[in-house]
């Protein structure tokens, strides 16, 4: 009972998407530190201090991004970092209070007009499948989108 691709497109209201370009992970991705430096405009040393390992996954704590969102001199960077935080903390919340490397990659590609809908739908199925397989657990896909879909259908 998850939303279809078409329903996710309607719920996300993404305007600049090229539907023929679908998100897939790069075979030889740039390092997380480099991605973070490019996205934030900060130094290598700053990025190195912020990157943490949680459950064998590289991530950045939300409070580090929050400080940048509030104080970054470039307003466009502030907006980008705020949007990244929303994707990392709400749409793909695997590690509570942290934004992981996969979300940074996803966000970077989203800015280029890559279609995010199949990735979000796959994340929803992955999370629901994990809950079902364990017989317990919490849903860590995009809860808010699923809630909007449920409210619009029932």
TrEMBL record:
Cross-referenced InterPro entries: DUF7745
Name of the protein: DUF7745 domain-containing protein
Higher taxonomy: Eukaryota, Viridiplantae, Streptophyta, Embryophyta, Tracheophyta
PANTHER family in alphabetical order: AMINOTRANSFERASE-LIKE PLANT MOBILE DOMAIN-CONTAINING PROTEIN, PROTEIN, PUTATIVE-RELATED
Source taxon at top rank: Eukaryota
UniProt source species: Gossypium arboreum (Tree cotton)
Keyword NAD among UniProt keywords: no
Pfam families xref list: DUF7745 (PF24924)
Record flagged with keyword Transmembrane: yes
Membrane-crossing segments per the record: 81-104
